Amino acid sequence: MTTRVTALPDQTDFDVTASETLLEAALRSGVPFAHACGGRAKCSTCRVWILSGLEACPNRNAAEASMADRLSLTDEVRLACQLKPQGDLRIRRLVLDETDLMITNQLGATAATRSGEAKHVTVFFSDIVDFTALSEKLSAYDVMYLLNRYFAQVGDIIEKNGGYIDSFIGDGLMAIFGIDGQPDAPLRAVNAALQTLGTVDRLKPFFASMYGIDFEIRIGLNYGEAVIGTLGFSEHGRLTAIGDVVNVASRIEAANKDAGTRLLISEPLRNALANKVEIADFVRVRLRGTSERTTLFEVDRLRPEIDAELNAKPSRETIRHGGRRWVCALAEQDLQLHERRILDFEDYDIVIVREADGYCAFNNACPHLHLPLYERRSPAQTRGLQLPHTESAITSDLGLVCRWHHSCFDLLTGEIRQWAQLQQDGTAPGYEYAGDISKNRAKLVVYPCRVQGGSVWIGLD
């Protein structure tokens, strides 16, 4: 006997045989379910929301019941690795996008073996706020999933800024900038720290909706001389930094707690930056293990001219027309029919798409959770992995169906054509963890487009 399952948001149907679990059948059919523990009911990353057909689901076995009790899962939330449906189902996966598929091979870069040399480096330490309390709310496997998702994105930031990831210690991360003598390593370390905080701010809604937790980190940076070399034996050796500069960086990170800050740097690092950053405040503290007070500085941001130089984005021609500022987005020939492009702006990203009737542009953030409507990863970054079909969709009459709650927006006006089917408590079916969104009926932010001189222009204000 086989049963038929429809999986959302993939919009994929697949069959489950009597001897298979829902997870086994899904993976066999190419539906990319997350399953951090390998299908042993030790995590909840394969959980699904039963939208219809709950009566076809047998009672939880002992392993699933134990996890359900621990996480207070409702009857509609089931573990795909344990569920053997006895009738047709309509489900929604609760762990979604391509980042989940990439976390195991995002951070695989290594550095060459070295015998040891003294260098001036910047050491980066980060830690998750109240990690012990956070981990007590989740299963061990869910904690590993959360950490890997966070580390995958932060590791990418560090490497793009020329840093070397030394180690992951529990919820902590240590990175080194300047191991190859880069003269701008101190500045790039601060740039990576600021970008990391920005990434965490964007991750917060995801973790809040998935796990109901407040996610925050603290970062400490120090500059000084360290011995750079390879520790370990045989193939287990790793490049690292040894010296007091490392110990102090760790203590600076810890000092954020008492100071009520997110990012503190040492006085030697501030001096090495030569006024390239804006300091919000300073504190005098006695670092752990020391007897004298030390001055630490809270970094607010890079100076605008330094930020513009270091994080330079392609300049775009701008004109005034009809009382509006228009920015040249791209050449007509650079965007094919039904193709899209994500453009970077200072405070937001804009998606531009080419349809049969012309071009449409809109803010790449759903008005519900402020999560991206489209991912920006290129085919090269996916490294050949098969990605889930969870992107937002554009209808033939220029409607945008949000991938998170399936609300539909008019791409010409931004108005809501069809709001998500909400339950009495204001939550969307399948996204109860996101909370009450009934009052969040904001329009999609859209931007006018015009074609002139072979180029596509977007009107920003």
Write up this protein.
The chain is an alpha+beta fold and 461 residues long. The chain contains ten helices and 25 strands. The protein has helices at residues 22-28, 62-71, 98-102, 131-137, 140-160, 185-211, 244-259, 267-273, 304-310, 379-382; strands spanning 2-8, 12-17, 47-52, 77-79, 89-93, 117-128, 163-169, 172-177, 217-231, 238-242, 263-266, 277-286, 293-302, 318-321, 324-331, 340-344, 349-355, 358-363, 393-394, 399-401, 408-410, 416-418, 446-447, 449-452, 455-459. Helix 5 runs antiparallel to helix 6. The longest helix has 27 residues, at 185-211. The chain is globular and about 70 Å long. The N and C termini lie far apart (60 Å).
Chart the SSEs and their pairings.
Layout: E1 2-8, E2 12-17, H1 22-28, E3 47-52, H2 62-71, E4 77-79, E5 89-93, H3 98-102, E6 117-128, H4 131-137, H5 140-160, E7 163-169, E8 172-177, H6 185-211, E9 217-231, E10 238-242, H7 244-259, E11 263-266, H8 267-273, E12 277-286, E13 293-302, H9 304-310, E14 318-321, E15 324-331, E16 340-344, E17 349-355, E18 358-363, H10 379-382, E19 393-394, E20 399-401, E21 408-410, E22 416-418, E23 446-447, E24 449-452, E25 455-459
Parallel strand pairs: 1-5, 9-11
Antiparallel strand pairs: 1-2, 3-4, 3-5, 6-8, 6-9, 7-8, 9-10, 11-13, 12-13, 14-15, 15-25, 16-17, 17-18, 18-23, 19-20, 20-21, 21-22, 24-25
